[in-house]
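Notebook, bench 3.
Goal today: get a predicted structure for Response regulator transcription factor from Nocardioides zhouii so we can plan the truncation constructs. The sequence was checked against the plasmid map this morning, with no discrepancies at the termini. Length recorded as 205 residues. Pasting the sequence as submitted so the record is complete.
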Amino acid sequence: MIIRVAMLGGDELVRRGLESMLRTLGGFELGSVKDRMRAPIDIALVETYGTSLDDTTLARAAADPFIHRVAVFTWNHHPGLVDEVLVNGVAGYLGKSLTAAQLGRALRSIHEGQAVVAPPLPGPGAQGMAVPSEVDMLTARERETLALIATGRSNDEIAREMRISLNSVKSYIRSAYRKIGVQSRSQAVLWAVTHGVRVEVLENA
């Protein structure tokens, strides 16, 4: 499944940076709002920093039937603004300081219908809306696959141990890598050990 993202506002540099991040993540594409009637936008990112008080871009995007979800994407990521941002159909308040992996997790959560503040902000306005951790974003099968990778097992060995096909193992690896933002087996091993996935899964097996 491809999640179509569009950028409203912001300069060309931000747009190109966003496109590069989405390309690195996989599973996303940068669409055009002008083409939304033919290819609807899953998530529109709206820059509100520096806009006038009477700017209606955010409200119009939230009301557009060809835009499924809307999130603010800004450098002006401040706790005091959360309550006034996450209203009237706006589902996310995202800072431009996010890494590609963090942005990917935030966008997937928004696409799934969650209200997301990322990076998480202190205070009552942000409670219950932080991006799920990378471990929480993984399915049980993806976590198990990463746990076995961390023990040094090959794909064939993982398939036998999990009693699934080799193609299924490869599919879990691809989806897990995409979610945690790694591109190699050695990076996956380091990530699994750092996040306690290996210990958690093998102890609970």
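The CA atoms of residues 137 and 179 lie 7 Å apart. The longest helix spans residues 166-180.
Flagging this for group meeting.
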